[in-house]
User: Fold these one by one.
Assistant:
Number 1:
Amino acid sequence: MARAAMGAATVLLAACSTAQAPAPLPPADPPAVEGAAPVHKCDPANIQQFVGKTRSAALEQDMLKVSGASTVRWAPFGTAVTMEYRSDRLTVFLNANNRVDRISCS
């Protein structure tokens, strides 16, 4: 009898609880705010010039300057990367010799 009463109480309490919806995700590209620092956006127009070059800190800085991206994601040979898209990022795939094999804004 005690078990039945506890089970009934549990069901009644569960029925009274309210589940909250998860908070909405922020937008992928936040809107520009007046007076705030500009949002970086990768421009793929001239980035193919870096294909074949060896990975280095200087190369990374050159790629950021030319592309307008705010960050570089290096993908060494044989490494898997996530497929989420970020408009402010440059993704650089390297070959087995640590040279740029392909590059894209992503």
Note: The chain has a mean pLDDT of 81.
Number 2:
Amino acid sequence: MPGEFDFINWLTSQQKTSELVQRAAGDDLAILKWASKDLLLVGVDQVLDGVHFDSKAHDPKSIGRKAMNRNLSDCAAMACLPSAAVVSVALANNVGVEYAKELYLGLKEAGDAFDCPIVGGDTASWPGKLALTVAILGKSDGIEPVTRAGAKDGDAIFVTGSLGGSLLGRHMTFAPRVQLARKLAASGKISAMIDLSDGLSRDLDHVCRASGVAAMLDAASIPIHEDATAMRRDGRSPLEHALHDGEDYELLFTASHCDHPSAIVIGRIGSGSGITIIEGDQQRVVRPEGWQHSL
């Protein structure tokens, strides 16, 4: 029966060198040649069976793609180019090498779409559920990174797509908005940006808190995905799903103006704190209710 070292040998056979990757997996550390003119951006994200996916319902390749795509979406949030990734996997004891290979191939396919190779990591098995941790390296490559902290009074609030109902399947199949983020940031007009992983209400709250501003949303302008309408049978309105569901992985950004065809204005930044929303002739406070890890 193939064991850990057979799997490691297979992983090593999947690696290749490049101008960036001088030595990939196979030693204790990978060796990367970093251009001195570039800023290095580093992030890490974890996905857990039963929290971010269901291994009984989702195949290993889909799980791997999601784990990598979440990190690629973080690169989009700051308008950097993904460059390399390191992956740590804790496999459940009851899965075999073929499962592990499919998991890796899902990770690799997602990374390859953005020229982001996996250059190392670690694999183990244990009695618990599947857990994956991806650390990603990104480069500025001539575009200043966009943070959450630059939103200004008077800026418009934009999103790049329809929101809500991602649990019906889009949370596993989304496409990171890396190239779109780069185009938006290259204009020099974007003041703050974040990817919508935790939900519109919570992620906008992150921007407001980091920037020291308030936000006013226009309910009629928020693009609501058809999946959010399909989920209204749970008693929540499509708007509530669009505000709070999360895992849409669209971009939310602020700017004085933006004429990109993917940019949809949903509100304005103001002075003060908190988020309010206008629905018809009514105005109410929006409390962040998206995803929040319990500790």
Note: The longest helix spans residues 60-77.
Number 3:
Amino acid sequence: MSQPIVFKITGKENTMCKLKKSLDELKQSPRQWFKYFYSFIRGKRYIRSQYDPCVYYNKLPDGEYIYLLFYEDDMLIASRSRSVIDKLKKNLSSEFEMKDW
């Protein structure tokens, strides 16, 4: 990484700037977003599948499961309980900008 030409300061050519947060259009932006999503979903007690890293699941108190299948910016939620699905969608929409198709 190097300083942009217009921001070079004589005598400090090797000085770098530290970003306090990720910016759009950077290579690390998707990674930072995923880390945030992962910490959020883990906070809701979802477990990442050992067979497919795009699948998260949570065992419900009645013994049923809810599954969250995640790929890039798309999600599929599956469960037998519609109320549990609605609750997860409400939690996700309170934290992330999303559309429900």
Note: The longest helix spans residues 29-43.
